[in-house]
Structure formats: C-alpha cells, structure tokens
C-alpha cells in the first residue's frame, strides 16, 4: 500500500466530518464572537473551509512563504455565506484529493518548508505536513467551530461518536 493510499481513507473521513460541520454555519452570524479575543465565526469557518488547500501547496511546491519578501501575503478569497463556504470547501477537497492520490511515496517523503519573509519556520516530510498542518489542523478548528455552534444553540454534528444533538448509534 502506498502512502497516499493509506492517507486517503483518513482524508475522506475528515473531509466528510468537516463538511458536516460547515453545513451548520449560520448565515447572518459571520461576525459573532464568543469572546473579544476570539476569531469571529465567519473568519474561523473560512479558515476551516480553505485549509484543505494546503495539501496542494505541500504536494505542488517545495515550500510556501506566508509573507514573501517584496510580495503580498497570500490569503484565500473569503466566503460571505454558507453556500460560498461549502462551494470553496468542495472545490478545495476535490483538488486536494486528486493531488494526494497522484503523489508518489518518494515525493511525499521529500522535505517541504514553511517560510515567513524568507525565514524557514519548519521543514518536514510532505506526508507529515499533510497529516499535521492539514488534517490535524482541520480537526482543531472544526472543534472550535463546534463550540461556536453550541454557543449559538445550533445542533453540533456527531463526528467520532455521539454529540449531545446526534447519536448515530440509535
């Protein structure tokens, strides 16, 4: 079994769970914050919806600079409602899945670096980047979004087991 074949079931499962959570994001609440220090719901949901795009950066390039010297910070387009969030997410998932499915073991084991203004922040094998900075990062922000949903009395989806609102076992 190849590395990509071993990652794809986890990728598919996490993308399905993420989509299920993004489907609950309420239109008209994108500015809502649980605390002044917290991100607003809209930017959090946008971040979650576009994180999958890091898969393409990781597989398609040897590095990514968050603030390239002499260039502009690279930020994805921001969705303004749930339909736009889901559209961006679905498009990103399709591209990322295709990139991951087509990547060889040799390529996935090559080092990839994250930079800021030309300075290397970290370097690790592409497969570790996909697991840590795509999948685990998405799980983290999906959990945050679940708290935002709960605080707005929106049913929280079942992800790895029952939530207080859904029980897939009964």
Describe the structure.
It is a single chain. β2 and β3 (119-125) form a beta hairpin. The protein has helices spanning 3-22, 41-50, 54-60, 82-101, 105-108, 126-151; strands at residues 63-65, 111-116, 119-125. The termini are far apart. With 170 residues, the chain is mainly alpha-helical. The protein has a single domain (3-151), classed as Up-down Bundle (Four Helix Bundle (Hemerythrin (Met), subunit A)).
Draw up the topology in text.
Blueprint: H1 3-22, H2 41-50, H3 54-60, E1 63-65, H4 82-101, H5 105-108, E2 111-116, E3 119-125, H6 126-151
Parallel strand pairs: 1-2
Antiparallel strand pairs: 2-3
Helix pairs in contact: 1-4, 1-6, 2-4, 2-6, 3-4, 3-6
Number of domains: 1
CATH class: Mainly Alpha
Nearest-integer average pLDDT:
95
Which class best fits the helix and strand makeup? mainly alpha
What is the number of strand segments?
A: 3
Gyration radius, in Å: 17 Å
List keywords for this structure.
51% helix, Four Helix Bundle (Hemerythrin (Met), subunit A), 3 strands, 6 helices, three-stranded mixed β-sheet, single chain, 170 residues, mainly alpha
Question: In summary, what is this structure?
Answer:
This protein has 170 residues and is mainly α.
């Amino acid at each position: 079994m190849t590395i990509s074949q071993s990652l794809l079931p986890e990728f598919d499962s996490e993308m399905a769970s993420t989509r299920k959570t993004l489907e609950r994001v309420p239109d008209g609440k994108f500015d809502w914050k649980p605390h002044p220090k917290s991100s607003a719901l809209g930017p959090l949901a946008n971040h979650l919806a576009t994180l999958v795009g890091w898969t393409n950066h990781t597989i398609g390039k040897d590095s990514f600079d968050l603030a390239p010297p002499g260039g502009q910070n690279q930020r994805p387009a921001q969705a303004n409602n749930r339909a736009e969030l889901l559209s961006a997410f679905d498009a990103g998932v399709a591209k990322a899945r295709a990139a991951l499915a087509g990547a060889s073991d040799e390529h996935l084991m090559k080092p990839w670096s994250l930079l800021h203004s030309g300075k290397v922040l970290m370097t690790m094998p592409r497969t570790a980047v996909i697991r840590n900075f795509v999948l685990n990062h998405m799980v983290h922000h999906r959990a945050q979004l679940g708290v935002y949903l709960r605080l707005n009395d929106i049913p929280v989806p079942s992800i790895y087991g029952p939530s207080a609102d859904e029980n897939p076992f009964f």
